[in-house]
Write a structure and sequence with these properties.
The chain has 14 helices and ten strands. It is α/β, with parallel strands linked by helices. The protein folds into two domains: 233 residues, Rossmann fold (3-Layer(aba) Sandwich), CATH 3.40.50; 78 residues, no CATH class. The strands form two sheets. The chain has an eight-stranded mixed beta sheet, with helices on both faces. The C terminus is likely disordered.
Length: 345
C-alpha cells in the first residue's frame, strides 16, 4: 500500500473478539479472544494494548482461536510494581496459554511484542509452532531518539505533564496535525508516518500506574544509547522453526535496516517489506498483512520440538555458517553479536 492509512476490511460475521479476564499469580490479565481452531497468540508493542489488533482479529478468527492479551502493565491488565523484562513477559504468555488450555500456538509479535515472541520461542520451544515478528525490538541498538529520551530519568517529569488538564487534548490535536502533514505535504518524511499511532499510545499514559509500567518496560530494553537487548546470538536456535519477518520500509521507530539483519540471522526465515508502511504495517495495509500471514501458515509445517536436537544446537552454538546475506550484512550481524553490552537473558 502507498501513502494512505488503512484500507477498510469487509465485515466477518460472528468473529468479533470478546474481552475476557483471568487472574494469574494474583494479577488480573485482560485479553481479547475470538474464533476456534489452532491457537494464534498476538502480542502488542510497548505502551499499546490488544485493541491494536481489532481490525485483523475477525479475519484471523475464521481459522484460528485468536488470543490477544494486554501485557501486564498495559491496557486493562493490572499494572503492579513488577518485573517488566522480556523474559518475564514471555513467562506471562506461557502462563496465559496454559490457563486457557493451549499447549502450543503460532505466535505473532509486534515491536516489543516481537521481542517477547522471540524470547518465548527461546524459553518455551515446546510451545511454539510458528513465529511471525513485525518490526521486532532486540535486533541491534538503533531506535527512535524519542525512546532513548524516554529512558532518561527526566522523562518521568515530562510524562507527568500528560496529567495536566488539557494536555491530552493538545496531544490529540498534535496527532491530527501530524496525520494531515503525513498525508499531505510531508508524506515523504518517515518521521510523520507513525505519528498518529504514537500519539494514540501517548493518550493512554496519563494514568500514573500505566505511565510507571511503560517506563519500567522501556528501561528494561532501552537506555540513552539505544536498545540494550539483542536476540541475534540465539537466532540459530530457530533453525527448525518457521519464521516470518514483516517490516514497513518507512518505519520511524525501528529502522527497516534491522529487517535484513534479522533475516540474515534467523535461519530459513521469510522476509516481507511493506512499501509505504511504517511501524504498524498491519494498520497501514491490513489486507496484505492478512495475506502474508495466511500464506505463511498454510505453506509451513508447525515445528515439532525435539529435546535431543535442541541440546545439540545449544552444545554446538552459533557459527558464521548460520548467518546468510551479503558480506556487509553478515559483518553487521557478527558485530552486533560480538558487542560487549547485550542481554544475557
Amino acid at each position: 500500500m502507498g501513502g494512505g492509512r488503512p484500507r477498510a476490511l469487509r465485515t466477518v460475521p460472528d468473529t468479533e473478539p470478546r474481552l475476557a479476564f483471568r487472574t494469574i499469580h494474583g494479577y488480573r490479565r485482560a485479553f481479547r479472544m475470538a474464533g476456534s481452531g489452532p491457537a494464534l497468540l498476538l502480542i502488542h508493542g510497548i505502551g499499546d494494548n490488544s485493541s491494536t489488533w481489532n481490525e485483523v482479529i475477525p479475519h484471523l478468527a475464521k481459522n484460528f482461536t485468536v488470543i490477544a492479551p494486554d501485557l501486564l502493565g498495559h491496557g486493562r491488565s493490572d499494572k503492579p510494581r513488577a518485573d517488566y523484562s522480556i523474559a518475564a513477559y514471555a513467562n506471562g504468555m506461557r502462563d496465559l496459554l496454559t490457563v486457557l488450555g493451549f499447549e502450543r500456538a503460532t505466535v505473532i509479535g509486534h515491536s516489543l511484542g516481537g521481542g517477547v515472541a522471540l524470547q518465548f520461542s527461546y524459553q518455551f520451544p515446546q510451545m511454539i509452532e510458528r513465529l511471525i515478528v513485525i518490526a521486532p525490538g532486540g535486533v541491534t541498538k538503533d531506535v527512535n531518539p524519542a525512546l532513548r529520551f524516554a529512558a532518561l530519568p527526566i522523562a518521568n517529569e515530562a510524562l507527568r505533564l500528560l496529567q495536566v488538564p488539557g494536555v491530552i487534548d493538545i496531544v490529540g490535536v498534535l496527532g491530527q496535525i501530524a496525520d494531515r502533514l503525513y498525508r499531505g505535504p510531508f508524506k515523504t518524511l518517515d518521521i510523520f508516518h507513525d505519528s498518529p499511532d504514537l500519539v494514540r499510545v501517548l493518550r493512554d499514559l496519563p494514568d500514573p500506574t500505566a505511565r510507571d509500567a511503560f517506563l519500567r518496560t522501556l528501561r528494561a530494553v532501552v537506555d540513552w544509547r539505544g536498545q540494550v537487548v539483542t536476540m541475534l546470538d540465539r537466532c540459530y536456535l530457530t533453525a527448525d522453526l518457521p519464521v516470518q519477518i514483516i517490516w514497513g520500509d518507512r518505519d520511524a521507530v525501528i529502522p527497516v535496516s534491522h529487517a535484513h539483519l534479522a533475516h540474515a540471522a534467523l535461519p530459513h526465515s521469510r522476509l516481507e517489506i511493506f512499501d509505504g508502511s511504517g511501524h504498524f504495517p498491519f494498520h497501514d495495509d491490513p489486507i496484505r498483512f492478512l495475506r502474508v500471514v495466511e500464506d505463511f501458515v498454510t505453506t509451513t509445517q508447525a515445528m515439532q520440538y525435539d529435546t535431543a536436537v535442541w541440546r545439540d544446537m545449544l552444545v554446538n552454538g552459533v557459527g558464521e555458517a548460520h548467518i546468510s546475506g551479503g558480506s556487509s550484512t553478515r559483518e553487521a550481524v557478527l558485530d552486533a553479536m560480538g558487542a560487549d553490552e547485550r542481554s544475557a537473558t
